[in-house]
């Protein structure tokens, strides 16, 4: 009975050494997990922005067919006007429509047009287009005027300037729009340029 009383008086819990080892193991696991988690967040930013751009193009194409009118899309930093000679879509873009006979394709948005959708700033990414400011879809869903394939790149960018980077852990996305108006995405190789060519 005396031995049982001795055991119950013994204190329970962690020793200082056990606590230090536990904290060290937790710190090592965090050091490994945090960079990987950060890459997951950056990949999701790139994927989300690229998908948003593709969805807006699909919407514009569908509206052109449904309405029987020209539907255009252009970069816009304020959600109400096209950015003059802008080929950078990360500040945002707008989708708008106008009658086919009223103007030629690739018309810059003005107050007589109907604004269909405005998409805001895409943070943490760079979205670049190759040589085009306004994209227009005709009444059959085709690019108007007939063009070669349009290219856009979306890459992770950690500052507000530059075209971003494509790495093995956070690859960029290239979006190609065919003359028929359909879009297709593919990954950009690590180290490749994030400027469409």
Largest sheet: 4 strands, antiparallel
Q: Total domains, how many?
A: 1
CATH topology: minor pseudopilin epsh fold
Unreliable residue stretches: none
CATH architecture: 3-Layer(bab) Sandwich
Helix and strand string, N-terminal first? HHEEEEEEEE
Q: What's the shape?
A: elongated
Major β-sheet strand ordering: 3-2-1-5
Total DSSP E strands: 8
Radius of gyration: 26 Å
CATH homologous superfamily grouping: minor pseudopilin epsh domain
Distance between the ends = 86 Å
Structural class: alpha+beta
Q: Helix coverage percent of residues? A: 25-40%
* Beta-strand content bin: 15-25%
Q: Can you describe what's shown?
A:
It is a single chain. With 197 residues, the protein is of the alpha+beta class. It has a single domain, classed as 3-Layer(bab) Sandwich (minor pseudopilin epsh fold), CATH 3.55.40.10. It has two helices and eight strands; from the N terminus they run ααββββββββ. It has helices at residues 2-9, 16-67; strands at residues 70-75, 93-98, 114-119, 125-129, 135-137, 150-156, 173-177, 183-187. The strands form two sheets. Strands 3-2-1-5 form a four-stranded antiparallel sheet, with helices on one face. A hairpin with a 5-residue loop joins strand 7 (173-177) and strand 8. The protein is elongated. The N and C termini lie far apart (86 Å).
């Amino acid at each position: 009975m005396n031995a049982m009383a001795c055991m119950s008086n013994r204190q329970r819990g962690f020793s200082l050494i056990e606590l230090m080892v536990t904290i060290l193991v937790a710190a090592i696991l965090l050091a490994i997990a945090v960079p990987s988690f950060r890459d997951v967040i950056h990949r999701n930013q790139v994927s989300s922005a690229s998908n948003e751009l593709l969805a807006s193009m699909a919407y514009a194409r569908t509206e052109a067919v449904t309405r029987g009118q020209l539907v255009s899309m252009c970069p816009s930093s304020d959600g109400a006007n096209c950015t003059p000679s802008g080929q950078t879509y990360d500040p945002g873009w707008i989708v708008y429509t106008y009658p086919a006979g009223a103007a030629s394709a690739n018309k810059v948005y003005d107050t007589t047009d109907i604004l269909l959708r405005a998409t805001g700033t895409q943070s943490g990414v760079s979205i670049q287009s190759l040589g085009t400011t306004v994209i227009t879809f005709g009444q059959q869903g085709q690019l108007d005027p007939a063009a070669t394939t349009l290219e856009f790149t979306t890459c992770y960018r950690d500052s507000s300037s530059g075209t971003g980077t494509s790495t093995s852990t956070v690859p960029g996305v290239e979006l190609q729009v065919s003359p028929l108006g359909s879009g297709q995405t593919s990954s950009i190789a690590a180290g490749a340029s994030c400027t469409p060519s």
